[in-house]
Every structure is written in C-alpha cells, then in structure tokens.
Specification:
The protein contains four helices and four strands, in the order βαβαααββ. By secondary structure, it is of the alpha+beta class. The longest helix is centred in the middle third of the chain and has 13 residues. The protein starts with a strand and ends with a strand.
C-alpha cells in the first residue's frame, strides 16, 4: 500500500442528519475531512490528471454524498462518503472525518466528530 495521499480538509455542507426531529427539519452544518491514499508516481511522471483523482470533482462528490438522504448518524454519513471515494479506481484506502460542530450537546464543546478508515476490498 502506498503512502501517497490527497487530503481535503474542512469541506462544509448543510444537511438534515440527526436523531432529533428539529435536526431533520432545520438542518445544520457539517464539516468533512477526507484523506485518500493512492499511488501518485504515474501522475507525477506524466503530469497527467488521468493518473490521479481530480480533487475538485472529489470535493463535489463528497459534499453531495454528505448532503443526500438524511440519516440519524454521522457514522452512516462517513460510511457513505468512504464508499464514494473508494469507487475511484486509484483509491486504495480512505479516512473520513465528519464533524458536527452544532451537535445538540448540553455542555460546552469545541467539536464532535466520527472518523473511519476503510480499505478497498
């Protein structure tokens, strides 16, 4: 497995995920970080976008996946995003972090997030 990677940090999306009705009705902001591991040697040698994953397109795919079909858990959102990333042929492994900065928690907090790592089967 390669140690080369592409990282997208701080992708922001408004979505309607959550256990509570008000979260589903009102929506809230989510912040997503994605690191995808892939072999970048061929792209570097050829200077050809076809040898890598277009990070601009990937950012749109990730935010679209996060925005779609409301679910209860951000764990489910993270799985959905991981599947989208691993659908790219060059992707070997992905780490997805979904932050829920406005989570309904009764004590002061800086961040709540789930992080998963998945590998191509």
């Amino acid at each position: 497995m390669t140690s080369d990677s592409i990282t997208l940090t701080g992708l922001r999306v408004t979505a309607h995920h959550g256990v509570y009705d008000f979260e589903r009705e009102n929506g809230q902001d989510f912040v997503i970080d994605v690191t995808v591991w892939l072999d970048l040697r061929a792209a570097a040698r050829s200077d050809d976008l076809a040898g890598t994953i277009h990070y601009g397109e990937l950012a749109v795919e990730v935010t679209d996946a996060a925005r779609g079909n409301p679910v209860d858990l951000i764990e489910t959102v993270a799985e959905r995003i991981a599947a989208v990333v691993l659908a790219h042929e060059p992707a070997e492994r992905v780490q997805v972090t979904v932050h829920k900065p406005n989570a309904p928690i009764s004590v002061p907090f800086a961040d709540v997030a789930v992080q998963i790592t998945r590998t191509r089967a």
